[in-house]
Amino acid sequence: MQYDVAIIGGGIVGLATAYQLSEQYRGMSVAVLEKEDRLVAHQTGRNSGVIHSGIYYKPGSLKAINCREGRRRLVAFCEREGVAYDVCGKVIVAVDEDERPRLHAIEERGRQNEIACERIGPEALREREPRAAGVEALYVPEAGIVDYVGVGRRMAEIVQERGGTVLTQAKVHGMAQHNGRVTLETAQGAVEARYVVNCAGLFADRVARMSGQEPSVKIVPFRGEYYELKPEARHLCRHLIYPVPDPAFPFLGVHFTRMIDGRVECGPNAVLAFAREGYTFGTVHLRDLAETLAYRGFVRLGRKHWKTGLAEMRRSLSKKRYHKSLQRLIPSIKIDDLEPSPSGVRAQALTPDGELVHDFLITETERVVNVVNAASPAATASLNVGLHIVEKLATRFA
Fold first, then answer.
1. Which residues fall within 8 angstroms of residue 325, CB to CB, at 6 or more apart?
2. Residues 34 and 159 in one domain
3. Are both 157 and 210 inside the same structural domain?
4. What is the CA 52 to chain-centroid distance, rounded?
5. Contact at 8 Å (CB) between 107 and 136?
6. What is the mean pLDDT of residues 22-45?
7. Is the dihedral of CA 198, 363, 389, 365 positive or negative?
8. Do residue 281 and residue 225 come from a single domain?
């Protein structure tokens, strides 16, 4: 099987890249290789379905630029292709006076990023979210919710309608470059391509090594655990209610998200996963765990932030503690209002110095583009990230 471009990974970033290639270069042969028996099975299919506005990210960063433009492209795609979405807005809530300065800093960052936002008081907050409690909030009208699985599947359909190939159960276990071509050894046989794009998510650093590049970071998996409101308690949240996040971490804290199907998710927390696809506490992969624990960057991260990590682990093991953290935003929520919801695992790049990589990280060899770090808001930004990757490839097509 021979193609112009082979994309490793059938999550939303890989599919968006294939979609943009088929859009910009009609007639180019494109293949998407997914190791599972279905597309969007991992990070894309297990996130909370939020359309991020881009308010949090450092001005000028890849996340800020691609989230802002990607949100616009995503909404247009959903409108055009009939995928369910709702730009319903969200509130970021300061629950006490100590959080006001950080809320104001988020507002300033939002304005630098050209994101519409409005500071509101407790009365206006109650008008939008009657059950939420706080001394002040930031209303962000451009945030919303969407069916990301539906987005990914529709992208795949369009790629195939334009002559592209989507292969499932095609795990890549080897890569070799010779005579201006790249040969991928997959579970479906050898695939040859002029160029390869690595969108392998939780395994992106390992695939990058296959390409002959030694990444400057390692992927460390963090599990996000969710509860959801029982049907009779869904009235507690109208749309999206977020806390003021800790600026030292890329995680936004436990929040309330009304999903596109009407369910209301509560979470996630962030704990170390014992496997790169460790969706439960008891899922352990010895190679993955040993690699994480032996990594100098993880050891340094643990030394700096062990208190935060311990608090997250305690919340993971105690529904009572989880419930208490949710009560900060909605005091009237009862522990019996909560029922378990499926977890997700975030592929978080970590430097040897123990620093969490806050921006997207894309590296290149002559024949391979490696998307090494594309955590949230990658789903929102996917169509713009895909276009960014295509522009990188375009310099080679000439």
1. 254, 269, 315
2. yes
3. yes
4. 10
5. no
6. 95
7. negative
8. yes
CA–CA dist 17, 28 (Å, integer):
13
Q: Are residues 281 and 352 in the same domain?
A: yes
Query: How many CB atoms within 10 Å of residue 348?
Result: 24
Regarding whether 164 and 26 lie in a shared domain, the answer is yes
* Residue 60 domain-assigned (yes or no): no
Rounded to an integer, the average pLDDT of 8-28 is: 96
Share of the chain above pLDDT 90, in %: 89
Neighbours of 12 (CB within 10 A): 32
- What average pLDDT does this structure show over 78-90? 98
Q: Among all chains, which residue has been given the structure tokens 């005579």?
A: 179
- Report the C-alpha gap between 394 and 78 in whole angstroms: 26
Number of domains composing the chain: 2
Same domain, 282 and 339: yes
Q: How confident is the model at residue 250, as a pLDDT?
A: 54
What value does the mean pLDDT take over residues 135-149? 98
Tens digits of residue pLDDT in 335-345: 999 999 999 99
Provide the H-helix boundaries in 134-175. 148-161
Beta-strand ranges (E) seen in 187-294 are 189-198, 218-229, 240-243, 255-258, 264-267, 271-272
- Reading the block at residue 244, the tokens are 């003021």
- Give the pLDDT confidence score for residue 48 in this predicted structure: 86
Cis peptide bond N-terminal to 243, omega within 30: no
- We report the CATH number of the domain holding residue 367 as 3.50.50.60
Q: Confirm whether 306 is domain-assigned.
A: yes
Strands 189-198 and 368-373: parallel
Same domain, 377 and 328: no
Q: Is 0.90 topped by the overall pTM?
A: yes
Mean pLDDT to the nearest integer, 352-378: 94
Contact 255, 269 (CB under 8 A): no
Q: Are residues 23 and 153 in the same domain?
A: yes
Query: Is 274 strand, coil or helix?
Result: coil
Judge whether 348 lies within some domain: yes
Q: What gap in Å lies between CA 249 and CA 348, rounded to an integer?
A: 11
pLDDT digits (tens, 9 = 90+) for 230-269: 999 999 999 999 999 876 665 668 899 999 999 999 999 9
Residue 66 falls within a domain, yes or no? Answer: no
Distance CA 207, CA 8 (A): 9
Angle at 219 between CA 218 and CA 221, to 5 degrees: 145
pLDDT of residue 306: 84
Q: What is the pLDDT of residue 211?
A: 95
Domain coverage including residue 319:
218-231+268-356
